[in-house]
Amino acid sequence: MKIGNIDLGDKPLFLAPMDDVTDPSFRYMCKRFGADMVYTEFISSDGLMHDAAKSIAKMRINDFERPVGIQIYGNQIEPMVEAARMAEAAGPDLVDINFGCPMKKIAGRGAGSGMMRDVPLMVEMTRRIVDAVHIPVTVKTRLGWDDESKNIEEIALRLQDTGIAALTIHGRTRAQIYKGAADWTLIGKVRNNPAIRIPIIGNGDVDSGPRAAEMFDRYGVDGVMIGRATYGRPWIFREARHFIQTGELLPQPDVRERVAIAREHLSKSLEVKGERVGVLEMRRHLTNYFKGLPDFKPVRQRLVTEDNPAELFALLDLIAEQWGDYDAAAMVPSPLSHDI
User: Fold this and answer.
1) N or C: which end of the chain has fewer CB within 10 A?
2) Distances (CA, A) of 115 to 101, 105, 121, 137, 200
3) With contact defined as beta carbons under 8 Å apart, do 189 and 157 qualify?
4) Cα 53 from chain centre
């Protein structure tokens, strides 16, 4: 599969862009475990226009995560065009447009999946962005606004005509947010439409190797994007790739391996963001590596309140010592949440 000149190989696996999750250190971990393509957290065009430090910081990328896309969102054409130019200047491999976020604070003001209520504006905005930059532009969106307006087949064709290089479809409507099961039927219909010439990437409820393989085989998608199931579980890409290639399930990492992964993740966070921010932004990740451990609440509380990196590393060593022999198969997978 190719996006523009980016060759992602056969049956590529994508890390979904997730706000407050897919920071550089987490992207690093997912790449290490085999993600073929990663994305930044979504970035507000309004924030970039107002020189917001947090928005600008989200555009910083590193060579270790390539190929990498910068995702932007907004509800007005001119700020989005300028945001795309700023994103291109940051040096990603592609720019992705978020027409999929269902959160009220975003969709409610017409950005993210709110764009699905104004398809002509969505199409014109996309066309202007494609014309404004010199790298591939992709789009991530949903099936439609609600059950009465599942118009993704029409939208896919119209977006293709703007010149986008690939389309990712999340198998829910905006109204569903994350309720109910993702419906891949329409994703498959888009992919198998003979008029579709661009790669179609499917997204929604992929939480295992067998599930990823099923989406490729049953619906014929060009790529599979994994979102919420990666949270605290970056090794899912290793699992999925192994199953796709061999049909065999890999065992879940044991506690000692999870400690080693968490230590590496923490080290990368400190390297990329410094001690204060690196520790703060790891709090959302660390406890998820150990979800399902019995009698873990006191240690979990310390993991999300400790400011000293040395103490955090010591806590990780303590976890390996006290729970090292716990049966990893009994640990509960991370809940599906946060995907956009």
Assistant:
1) N
2) 10, 13, 7, 17, 19
3) no
4) 22
Query: Among residues 142, 330, 329, 334, which one has the least CA distance to residue 230?
Result: 334
Q: Which two tokens stand for residue 94?
A: 């592609």
pTM: 0.93
What does each C-alpha distance from 29 to 36, 235, 242, 266, 313 come to in angstroms? Answer: 12, 8, 17, 10, 17
Q: Do the Cβ atoms of 110 and 104 come closer than 8 Å?
A: no
State the Cα–Cα distance between residues 189 and 226, nearest whole angstrom.
20
Tokens of 54: 């947090």
Q: Are strands 2-3 and 6-7 parallel, antiparallel or unpaired?
A: antiparallel
Tell the residue number behind the tokens 């609600």, with chain if given: 146
Q: How far is CA 181 from CA 120, 165, 173, 227, in A?
A: 29, 28, 11, 14
What is the four-CA torsion angle of 84, 90, 96, 97, rounded to 10 degrees? Answer: -30
Active site residue 30: no
Tokens of 243: 């199953």
Per-residue pLDDT of the chain in tens (340 residues, 90 and over written 9): 999 999 999 999 999 999 889 999 999 999 999 999 999 999 888 878 877 777 778 888 988 899 999 999 999 999 999 999 999 999 999 999 999 888 888 888 888 889 989 999 999 999 999 999 999 999 999 998 887 889 999 999 999 999 999 999 999 988 777 888 889 999 999 999 999 999 999 999 999 999 999 999 999 999 999 999 998 999 999 999 999 999 999 999 999 999 999 999 999 999 999 999 999 989 889 989 998 899 999 999 999 999 999 999 999 999 999 999 998 777 866 545 434 3
Contact 249, 243 (CB under 8 A): yes
For residue 17, report the phi and psi dihedrals to the nearest 5 degrees: -70, 130
Q: What is the largest CA-CA distance in the chain?
A: 59
Report how far residue 126's alpha carbon sits from residue 163's, in angstroms, rounded to the nearest whole number. 8
Contact yes or no for 65/24 (Cβ under 8 A): yes
Secondary structure letter of residue 36 according to DSSP = S
* Cross-strand bridge partners of residue 97: 72, 139
Q: What is the 8-class DSSP label of residue 329?
A: G
